[in-house]
Fold this protein.
Amino acid sequence: MRIDILSIFPGYFDIPINEGILKIARDKGLLIIKTIDIRDFTEDKHRQVDDYPYGGGPGMVMKPDPVFKAVESVLHEHPESWRQQARTVLLTPRGKQFDQSMAAEFAGEERIVLICGHYEGIDERVHQKVSDEVSIGDYVLSGGEPAALVFVDAITRLLKGVLGSAESLAEESFIEGLLEYPQYTRPALYEGMKVPDVLLSGDHAKIASWKRMESIRQTYKIRPDILKKASLSQAEKDFIKALNEQKDKGEGKDEQDRVV
Ligand code: 6GU
């Protein structure tokens, strides 16, 4: 996969692309990342990338021309077939919210061009020209750069060959709609806190069933909203019912916290 990141702060990415998962993927030749300075595509002596908004209003707006020229320049470096396939993604708080299934979809692409928005906004004509608009959540960042890193990390770990197969199972469970079960490593007893006996039992069937139930318990506690979408067996639904009953008895929580 090749990803071009267009930004007015290209140096922002220097360390993250040389550490951890991004470094592994690049070293294995599975990912090529290029950062492009949008300012290199200005034509005035001040290299200005922003301007006042038409009609007035607070703040500055990112000019369309340097962004378009930067996009065109990265797409022209490649054969026509690639050019047509490329997804051009504008990172903006008004985009579609990024999630695991979107990450999986983008992980299947050959070429992605990311545009990091800035200032109070970006000229509307840029919004019209891109193929996708993505937000990473309901909060406002000062620019698209941290969002671009989130996007690239989530996609890179899904590329075939980046992680071992055992590790890649982890996010499948998220797609299934459950959070991870609690994990432990040595020592078995740490500051008075014990690892659950079942994990030391060597009984693989029991362990598998414990993991599944604990995943459900975690999800019930922390993200009941995603639990609603999970596909669950009757035994698992009964388990949730029991959790609901415990909660009703124990804490007397509101009806709206109930999941099933
Ligand atoms: Cl992609 N950009 C900005 N500026 N803020 C955001 C965002 C993106 N996603 C959430 N907040």
Notes: The first strand starts at residue 2 and ends at 7.
